Amino acid sequence: ITITNDKGRLSKDDVERMVAEAEKFKAEDEVIKKKVEAKNGLENYCFSLRNSLNEDKIAAALGDDKATLEAKIQETITWLEEHPEEAPESYEEKQKELEGVANPIMTKAYGGAAGAGDAAPSGGGGGPHVEEVD
Q1: Closest to 61 in 3D by CA, of 8, 9, 107, 120
Q2: Of 77, 102, 105, 120, which has fewest CB within 10 angstroms of its CB?
């Protein structure tokens, strides 16, 4: 933090007091920043998953797992609304819990959706061939 006294409005004591206050609140601000980042990360993950569920190919590939995942997402969103001031670790733990349910389901769904025809060719299919020239 830089505090300057360009126009002579602040005394040396005022500047020192402002710097001391800034240092005092720095640790508190860091804790709040971590909490907000963890909470936002969990919220973003929930809404990203929800948006993925609305994609036609993914929804079709999920089958019965879609209801399971939707229920877990809604449970997590409800928990977020009921716990707005938790420690960052609580949000991270909740995200890992949701990931534990979502990752296997989404991996299976993306594998099934990729097999549906839009998958990129693997290996030496009919795509362009690039030769390196020195």
Answers
A1: 107
A2: 120
Q: Taking a C-beta distance cutoff of 8 angstroms, is the pair 97, 44 a contact? A: no
The count of other CB atoms within 10 Å of the CB of residue 134 is: 2
Report the candidate in 83, 59, 84, 82 with the shortest Cα–Cα distance to residue 70. Answer: 59
**Closest-CA residue to 77 (of 37, 42, 52):** 42
76 in helix, strand or coil? Answer: helix
Q: Which two tokens stand for residue 84?
A: 């707005």
Question: Tell me, what amino acid is at 20?
Answer: A
The structure tokens 């299976």 sit at 108
Element of type H or E holding 97 = helix 88-113
pLDDT tens figures, 26-67: 888 999 999 999 999 999 999 999 998 888 888 888 888 889
pLDDT 10s digits, 67-105 = 999 999 999 999 999 999 899 999 999 999 999 999 998
What's the alpha-carbon Rg for the chain, to the nearest Å? 25
3-state DSSP helix/strand/coil % of the chain, to nearest 5: 75, 0, 25
